[in-house]
Amino acid sequence: MALTGLFLCTFLLVHLIGNLQLFKADGGMAFNVYAVFMTTNPLIKFTSYGLYAIIIFHAFWGLYLVSENKKARPVAYAMVDGKANSQWTSRWMGVLGTIILAFIVMHMAGFWAKYKFGEVPYVQYERNIVDGSMTYGPSAPIESKKEQFVSAETGMEYTIVKDLYTEVAVAFKEWWIVLLYVLAMAAVSFHLVHGFSSAFQTLGVHHSKYNGLIKFVGIWVFGIIVPILFAAMPVYFFIQ
Ligand code: HEM
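# protoporphyrin IX containing FE complex -> structure
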C-alpha cells in the first residue's frame, strides 16, 4: 500500500504540472499538444498501463485490509473513542479512498475515454512565426492525433490536434461537475494528509531528522497545494 500510494502521489504531481497548461491563454494549444504527447509517447503509454493496475491494486487491497481489520474484532467495542489515539483521517481512509476511486472512474469516463474512444473534434492553430500572433478554429478531422508543419509561403506554423481543451472547458461549465470535482479534491486532501506520512512510517522511515519534512510535504504539498490547484481548474472554467 505504501509503495503504490507513493507512486500515485508522484503521478498526481506529474498530472497536476501537465494540467496547469489549462491556465495558459493560448486557446488550449499547449494543453492539446501535451495530451497528444501523453497518449502517444511509448514510454508514457507503457507507464500508464502500470498506473491503471496500481490504482486498481491500491484501491482493492486497501478495501480488503479495511474489511480484515473489521473482522479482527467481530464484536465491536461497547464504547469507541477514536479521537483518543488516532486522527479521523486515519480512521476514514477506506471511505475517502472509495470516494477517490469513484471520482477516478467518473473522471476517466468523462475525459480519458472520450479522448481515446469517442468523437473529439479537431482544432487548427495558426501561429505567425515572425510576431508570434495566433489564431485558431475548427479543423476537419485528420488521420493522426497531431499534424504540425511550417509553410514558407504563408510564414505560418500550423498545428492540428484533437481539441481536448474545449471538452474540459465545456464540462466545467456545469455547476454539478465543478461541485463534484471540488468535493473530490477535499477527499484527496484528507486522504493524502494521512496517507503520505503513513507510507513513510510503513516503509520504516521514522527518524526525528526526516519526520518534520515528511509531515510538512504531506500537509502542505499533498494536503493543501495539490488539491487546491486541481480544484482551481474546474472553478477557473466555471467563472470565465
Ligand atoms: C481537477 C483537475 C483535473 C483535470 C482538469 C484533469 C484532466 C484530465 C484529462 C483531460 C485526462 C485525459 C487525458 C490524459 O490522459 O492526459 C485525465 C486523465 C487522468 N486523470 Fe485527470 N484531471 C484532473 C484531476 C485528476 C485527479 C485529482 C486524479 C486522481 C485522483 C486524476 C486521475 C487521472 C487518471 C488516472 C487519468 C488517466 C491517465 C492516463 O491515462 O495515463 N485526475 N485527466
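# post-check
The beta strands are 122-128, 134-139, 146-151, 156-162.
The chain has two domains: 2-120+172-239, 121-162.
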